[in-house]
């Protein structure tokens, strides 16, 4: 009988930061050893960060990554951890072609003891690995104290055949996988179902360790888990936080003993947390300590400000009210209330004097005059950003981006866009959820996310309200002309978002949308708006991907699109 204790080290890494990533590997290896683990497994490309994109093509970086892996092995042994088997993701080199490989190395006894190269290189959606890496061509089974451990990297278990099919013939005791699987709403059950199929295929438990943290427009949600050979859930780690879990394998047992299984998250909390973590890590990895944004009193800027407060604290949020001659008193009051609720810094910068000065020279009317107001506001936001070292955040949502309902160099200005992948109706839903969470005791910064693994409830909210109720309930308006409402230019959001979801995320064409039951006028309007706005979307700042198809990496129309079927 062989008993092996595995440590699942779900950590947040930074692309290119070999030193910091190596230090974190060392720290978690020590923690794993203290709890008597024999094997510790980290996420995909742990040492280099993931995805490293074209950085992998730099020979000097690959050499530095190899040197750091060798250093890690030596340091682990020097610290008395030579007996520990440490599985780390990194970049390797195919010496026959001098091209990079997506590699797992196992550090043991002071050396790089074993290695395995990823076979299946994804080339869809957010992935570009087929262009960057060369594929591995052999399966690997590790012998650890008599236990046979088959290994795989992420996409290797998503595709039929390949290394998993080979491992099914090699009588393994467990399949150990390291993963860099980005977050997507509703995807957690898909991973679980996949692992259940692979466990049945190899007739052994499957260990699934996933990366956590934000990297540019991707968010990795963690949620590492273990399933038994019969598909039973044995262990599940929390989402969106760093975590060290333990799984005890008994090679003679017919069924393995379950460990801690963290409950599923509320779906709204899940998406909200993904957006916050994307912003939080983008700021941390680009060394921003605070954000600035325009506060209009509307729901979009209110939700973005709330997310920013949860990410870095309300005291690090600079809100700017920029009222015009068309701004309602209610909107100005709502903006002030929101800033007070989250403890943000709040300035008022009226734009009418600047607008009048521009108009004296330019004499604009119609849409040009409306857009001028937005661009003046963009200049003010960027002035705050430049002068105070703050990250300017854009507040546009997916419905607006889809239809081009934004102003280039105006409300589209910013370095990051936390809600760009949320349809307008989803913005309302998440705002209501955040207020429910506030009423239940979740203060500012109390979200369960990287950096708050200890569960600090955050700074209490006065009255248990974060987002002003009026911002949620009032009819949305850009307030760029008297009495303006979004519905003057767009279908009602309840209808619009249903068409957008079908057209964008489910790739339904005109005939499909009509078959879905949408009327011809609405279909024609929405398709025309979406297709014509591609040039704008390509200039919009990046933001966290949380749906199956996000604008940017996932879905791009030609800039000139004549296809309407």
From TrEMBL:
Q: Which residues form the CN hydrolase domain?
A: 4-251
Binding of ATP, residues: 294-301, 395
One Gene Ontology term of the molecular function aspect: NAD+ synthase (glutamine-hydrolyzing) activity
Cite the annotated pathway.
Answer: Cofactor biosynthesis; NAD(+) biosynthesis; NAD(+) from deamido-NAD(+) (L-Gln route): step 1/1
Q: Report residues binding deamido-NAD(+).
A: 371, 400, 536
Please name the catalytic residues of this protein. 44, 118, 154
Q: Name one GO biological process term.
A: NAD+ biosynthetic process
EC numbers: 6.3.5.1
Positions binding L-glutamine in this chain are 124, 181, 187
Which keywords does this Swiss-Prot/TrEMBL entry list? ATP-binding, Ligase, NAD, Nucleotide-binding
What this protein catalyses is: deamido-NAD(+) + L-glutamine + ATP + H2O = L-glutamate + AMP + diphosphate + NAD(+) + H(+)
Gene Ontology cellular-component annotations: cytoplasm
One Pfam assignment? CN_hydrolase
| Keyword Nucleotide-binding applies | yes
Provide the top EC class: ligase
What's this protein's function? Catalyzes the ATP-dependent amidation of deamido-NAD to form NAD. Uses L-glutamine as a nitrogen source.
Q: What protein family does this chain belong to?
A: Belongs to the NAD synthetase family.
- HAMAP family reported for this sequence: NadE_glutamine_dep
Query: What is the protein named?
Result: Glutamine-dependent NAD(+) synthetase
Provide the organism lineage as a comma list.
Bacteria, Bacillati, Actinomycetota, Actinomycetes, Bifidobacteriales
């Amino acid at each position: 009988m062989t008993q092996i204790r595995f440590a699942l080290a779900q950590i947040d890494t930074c692309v290119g930061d070999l030193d910091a990533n190596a230090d974190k590997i060392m720290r978690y290896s020590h923690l794993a050893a203290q709890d008597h683990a024999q094997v510790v497994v980290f996420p995909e490309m742990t040492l280099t960060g993931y995805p490293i994109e074209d950085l992998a093509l730099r020979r000097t970086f690959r050499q530095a990554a190899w040197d750091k892996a060798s250093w890690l092995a030596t340091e682990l042994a020097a610290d008395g951890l030579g007996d520990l088997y440490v599985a780390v993701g990194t970049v390797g080199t195919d010496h026959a072609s001098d091209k990079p490989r997506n590699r797992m190395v196992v550090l043991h006894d002071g050396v790089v003891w074993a290695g395995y190269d990823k076979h299946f290189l994804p080339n869809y959606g957010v992935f570009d690995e087929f262009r960057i890496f060369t594929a591995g061509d052999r399966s690997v089974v590790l012998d650890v104290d008599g236990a046979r451990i088959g290994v795989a990297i992420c996409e290797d278990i998503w595709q039929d055949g390949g290394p998993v099919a080979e491992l099914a013939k090699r009588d393994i005791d467990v399949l150990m996988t390291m993963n860099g699987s980005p977050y997507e709403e509703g995807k957690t059950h898909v991973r679980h179902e996949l692992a259940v199929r692979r466990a049945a295929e190899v007739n052994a438990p499957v260990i699934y360790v996933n990366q956590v943290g934000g990297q540019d427009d991707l968010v990795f949600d963690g949620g590492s888990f273990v399933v038994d050979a019969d598909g039973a859930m044995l262990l599940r780690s929390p989402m969106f936080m760093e975590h060290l879990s333990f799984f005890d394998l008994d090679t003679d047992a017919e069924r393995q003993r379950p460990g801690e299984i963290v409950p599923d998250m509320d779906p709204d909390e899940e998406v909200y947390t993904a957006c916050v973590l994307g912003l939080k890590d983008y700021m941390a990895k680009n060394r921003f300590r605070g954000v600035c944004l325009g506060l209009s009193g509307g729901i979009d800027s209110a939700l973005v400000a709330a997310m920013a407060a949860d990410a870095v604290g309300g005291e690090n949020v600079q809100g700017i009210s920029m009222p015009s001659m068309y701004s309602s008193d209610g909107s100005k009051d709502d903006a002030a209330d929101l800033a007070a609720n989250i403890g943000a810094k709040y300035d008022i910068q009226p734009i009418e004097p600047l607008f009048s000065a521009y108009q004296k020279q330019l004499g604009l009317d119609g849409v040009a005059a409306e857009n001028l107001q937005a661009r003046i506001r963009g200049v003010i936001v960027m002035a705050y950003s430049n002068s105070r070292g703050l990250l300017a955040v854009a507040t546009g949502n997916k419905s607006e981006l889809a239809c081009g309902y934004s102003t280039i160099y105006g409300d589209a200005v910013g370095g990051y866009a936390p809600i760009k992948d949320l349809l307008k109706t989803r913005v309302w839903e998440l705002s209501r959820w955040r207020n429910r969470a506030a009423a239940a005791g979740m203060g500012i910064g109390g979200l369960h996310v990287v950096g708050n693994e200890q569960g600090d409830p955050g700074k209490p909210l006065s009255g248990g309200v974060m987002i002003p109720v009026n911002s949620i309930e009032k009819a949305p308006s850009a307030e760029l002309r008297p009495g303006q409402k979004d519905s003057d230019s767009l279908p009602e959001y309840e209808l619009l978002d249903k068409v957008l979801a079908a057209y964008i995320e489910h790739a339904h064409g005109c005939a499909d949308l009509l078959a879905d039951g949408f009327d011809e006028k609405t279909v024609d309007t929405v398709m025309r708006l979406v297709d014509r706005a591609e040039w704008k979307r390509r200039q919009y700042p990046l933001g966290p991907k949380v749906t199956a198809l996000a604008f940017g990496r996932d879905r791009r129309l030609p800039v000139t699109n004549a296809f309407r079927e």
